[in-house]
Amino acid sequence: MSRKAPAFKAFFFFIAMYALGEVAEIPMTGTTMNAAKHYLNTLNADYLAVHRRKEDLFWTTYMGTSDDHKGSAEAESSWVAFISNTDRLTEIRAQLDGMTEGDDAATKVGLQGWLALFEANVLETEAAKSLKAELIKAEGELFEARQAYTMTYVDQMGETQEGSSPVLSANIGSNENESVRESSHQALLDLEQWVLNNGFIELVKLRNQFAKAQGYRTFFDYSVQKTEQMSTEELFVILDDFEQRTRDGNLDSIQALREKHGESALKAHNFRFTWGGDSTRELDPYVPFSKSLRQWVDSFSRLNIDYSEAVLTLDLLDRKGKYANGFCHAPVPAFYDQSQWVPAVVNFTSLAKPSQVGSGYDGLGTLFHEGGHAAHFANVKMNAPCFSQEFAPSSMAFAETQSMFLDSLITDGDWLKLYAKDKDGNVIPDSIIEKGISERQPFRSYGERGILVVPYFERALYELEEDQLNAESITCLARAMELKILGLKTATRPLLSIPHLLSDESACSYQGYLMANMAVYQTRAYFIERFGYLTDNPEIGPLLSEHYWRPGNSISHDASIRALTGEGFNAKFLADECNLSTTQAWEREQRKIAQAKTRVVPATQKLNASIRVVDGDKVLASNEVSNETMCEEFERYVEET
Question: In which band, very low, low, confident or very high, does the pLDDT at 23 lie, cut at 50, 70 and 90?
Fold first, then answer.
């Protein structure tokens, strides 16, 4: 079921042609301030006010620097009320109907963008509005309780320690002591049961009631339509195909691990450590988290990524009370306000614990990922803030393509040889890169299927009858899906320990990460075919900006890929990547490393952003003087703490 009106076809064709360069720059000024333009400007300003309050409170509560959960829920409710206001639909349609051919084209584009947003979010019935209010309240209560919930593990000395999700995950992946790994995994299993007994089941029921009030079978159906503009059936044509393409490779790698290391290697707390622990520890000295900020600044600037005067705040270190997942959000979306550029205000996080093995590289990946989101949101060059935000009608797959493309770079052999150095300046040896590939490549399918299992589970969860929605049934369903998709009796990361499932904005949207990664490898293939390399390629930033970022959510995921690569969305590139042999993968990286030696490393450029690095309320570093000074301040703080 499409929720876009047929009248939108001409608008989206116009926008697609604009993104493809077939239409001149959208004019940002007109000869007179007519009623439609005045309405657009007022709507932009009204949205900015309600959106800024919501996002500012979101940041402080999720960072644990404020406990104003009531205020945050109220601001969220005000924002939801704004974007779901039925009267706005009537007003915008009236403004569009009243426009003539002589009116400002940009005004029409802006109003059409707002119409798409309201059509994606308007709640048509009083029942739906009431249920949405209940959902916000229930989710806020669960989030507040989850923040107060403490997880623990037993360390090497037999002492009980508190551990956030990233700490527990790092333990499971790289701690040499099996009892530490086992207690860390048990903490995640305990979290599952806590979630199931502290409001999540009631949330699932409420979500389904909310979706049914709007004519959908389940909340999963509702969410897929809203986030990706496709039906559940259309989505699973893609997912089932990918599942089939990668099934044998996944099962073969698990069987090989069993034959080499025995049945105990398949235990959830041993599995990832067995095939990834050694290389993670050997890589660790070459990617200390203290250097991650410099690596991000230098790498992105050499890609010629420009943040278009954005104001960035980065909270990068793990601490108690902080939300246990990296994220990026934009309190002020970037847009042209009557030809005046409004730079984005963007905040993003990682959760590094520098003293922990593996945390540096994980934190670096999160920094590249969230920094990629920030680059995207900062470079939407449209004339209304509705085009530069992550909510519907924005596609999650489209948004994640930007961030995942950029975080994929740090896995490349030439990137590692150029950036990964120990404290004495020694470059990472080829042997460590090769070892990492030999350990990870056989489990590449497993890694992608770790994303795939989530939509399979969530679809089945929301299709359960209400009398089946209990802790025991849901736990059994989670284990059954993990066995079916991952091939393990229990996942290294149990399904209900994934924070996305708890949040209304991210529930039933995890498949966006997999669809994004399909697009990432399609994008990588295009750049490699055109230029021969990715790392430090100054052609990449401007091309991403022109084809992926500038139009914002005014074009579809598929249209953006066509604009850059000339062909539509294709899952083949990711499946082919998963199915490479270890030998093939290493030979490819050797070619990259050899080629990089022949290139001149471009000079770093200004990122064109005002940047602060914070730890909660404390400012650790800024680029007020220079990027170099900021990186030095951050390195000094991390190394001395």
Answer: very low
pLDDT at site 485: 98
DSSP result, 287-336: S-GGGHHHHHHHHHHHTT---TTEEEEEEEE--TTS-SS--EEEEE--EE
Q: What is the pLDDT of residue 276?
A: 74
Residue 321, Ramachandran bin (φ over 0: left; ψ between -120 and 50: alpha; else beta): left
- CA triplet 400, 406, 411: central angle to 5 degrees? 115
Distance CA 637, CA 639 (A): 6
564 to 217, 225, 478, 573: CA distances (angstroms): 36, 25, 39, 16
CB 106 within 8 A of CB 61: no
- The pLDDT tens digits for 326-376 are 999 999 999 999 889 999 999 999 989 898 888 899 999 999 999 999 999
Q: In the beta sheet, which residues pair with residue 622?
A: 612
**Whole-angstrom distance, CA of residue 179 vs CA of residue 269:** 9
Q: At residue 174, does pLDDT exceed 60?
A: yes
Handedness of CA 477, 480, 484, 488 (dihedral sign): positive
- AA identity, residue 571: A
Instruction: List, in order, residues 6 or more apart from 203 with CB less than 8 Å away.
Output: 135, 138, 139, 142, 502
Q: Rounded CA gap, 327 and 369, in Å? A: 9
d(CA 320, CA 16): 45
Q: CB–CB of 201/300 below 8 Å? A: no
Quick one: pLDDT at residue 357? Answer: 80
Q: Which domain holds residue 142?
A: 131-284+448-501
The number of domains in the chain is 3
Last residue of a domain, one of 74, 107, 128: 128
Q: What is the pLDDT confidence band of residue 33, given thresholds at 50, 70 and 90?
A: low
**Of the residues 98, 128, 158, the one at which a domain ends:** 128
Q: Is residue 337 part of a domain?
A: yes
Determine, yes or no, domain membership for 229.
Answer: yes
Half-sphere exposure of 484 (CA within 13 A, CB side): 16
CA angle 80, 83, 86 (to 5 degrees): 110
